Amino acid sequence: METKLYTPNKNGDFVFWFCFPAVNSFALSSLGYLWLLKEAENLDDIITEKITTDTEKTKFRPSDVDLMAFSMSFDFDFLNVFKILEKYKIPFKSSEREESYPLIFAGGPVVSANPEPYKEIFDFFIIGDGEETNNLIIKTVKDNREKSRNEILKILSEIEGVYVPKYPKNKIIKLTKPLDTCIYSTIISDEAFFKKTFIIEIERGCSNCCRFCLASFLNLPVRHVKFETLREIIDLGLSKTNKIAFLGAQVSAHPNFKEICEYIDKKKDEIPDLEMNFSSLRVDAITPKVVKLLKKCGQKTVTLAIEAGSERLRNVINKNITEEQLFSAVKIIKENGLKGIKFYAIIGLPTETQQDIEELISLGKRIKKEFSPLEISFGFSTFIPKPHTPFQWFGREENSVIENKIKYIQKEFNKSGINTNFPSVKQDFWQAVLSRGDGSFTEFLIDTYKNGGKPSAFKKSAKLYNIDAEFYGQKLWDTEYKLPWEFIEPKSPPKEFLKKEFHGIIST
């Protein structure tokens, strides 16, 4: 069952397919996608249809569709983009789509960071925030629908923040918008991955700027939603469901975080079954009041992102958390009644040594021993270099090196009863290749999809199309190397700042 918090426009003769490259349950939990869907459905004379990989029936045939858009949040999303295109018999390459096919574009974090691997797949891209540009694009295509594809693309290329590979500019300005409007869940559904949950974006960007973090740097400058607006949106959400979640790269950095917690505490007295969740919390945001509120709202565990086990490595990545702060936070969590903690950490960060691994293991074991019976678990990822960050020039360690680290950590933590969760090292390697890829990837991507999209398919296709995977995934690039995404001009930080950060890391 779905509850829409708006009334869609159902009239018009211009058809817009808004595609999410995953199953419907994930689409229903994707805040940015749902918001843009709502904005499009509110346009006059536009008929919008939501398309996912498990969509069974559509109101329109592909030949009736004027415009298609894809939201790309993860590097492997291209596989499901191809799955949707293949399902509706639409050619994968833009050059093979004739006038009868819809124009197809993409937005989202993946292509805002680096659209080049996909430049021959999509007709154009939104670079940066899409709340206003998405509707402008729809209106522009509708108003010029009698023109040829090339004529429309030329017009679109003049819109700020729009990248049309066929009509490239020297620089594309990454769009950023003030958070005057609070972005929130526009559909509440028991079919969503986060069932019946009302999600609110309270901020965009992160002032901490951990040097590996795309979410921080891609969304600069940091913007916060005003507390007065948040109160209204919280009330709206709680009028529809009892589950509420706050989204942001660092929610506890909101200047009114204390007031937000106090307001939720007050609402809990009015709505006894209210459940609340934060995406994650910084260690230095853990206070008795916050933990008591989490417990009061039904949480049994809390997630803390420490990224690295040694203080030295945390300083390298700009995650400036001391061991004293960490142990103090764990003590507060235990004393105020939560049952467990899940720590997030990254393996294979630049400059990581065996000593850093040993300190991570020691840290986990000491926490487990000192704060028993708290349930302690660690969720790991492996380092993936991301565009527009100071770590964009770094490559990954060889897979065998990372895999040996994982085996060692897993063995040591198992001895102490610490649960662990590790990613696929091979999949993470190919994510790194995609992350730093360029315009030569088209046939490689298509062939990978046709061969099943597994790591073995990536390897086979890379060999067939002479893609030097080690160069993209593992090589340490010189800062004078022309980056594939260098034509994107971020609002901040400038490239020279990133270079300075990089050289500072190298010198350590």
Overall 3D geometry?
globular
Poorly predicted tracts of residues: none
Oligomer: single chain
Number of strands: 19
* Number of DSSP helical runs: 19
How many domains? The number is: 2
Q: Compute the gyration radius: what is it?
A: 23 Å
Instruction: Give the helix proportion (percent range).
Output: 25-40%
CATH architecture of the largest domain: Alpha-Beta Horseshoe
What is the CATH level 1 assignment of the largest domain?
Alpha Beta
Tell me the major beta sheet: 6 strands, mixed
Q: Write out the CATH superfamily name of the largest domain.
A: tm_1862 like domain
Measured between the Cα atoms of the first and last residue, the distance is 55 Å
β-strand amount: 15-25%
Strand order of the largest sheet: 3-2-4-5-6-7
Q: Could you tell me the mean pLDDT?
A: 94
CATH topology of the largest domain: pyruvate-formate lyase- activating enzyme
Please identify the structural class as seen in this structure: alpha/beta
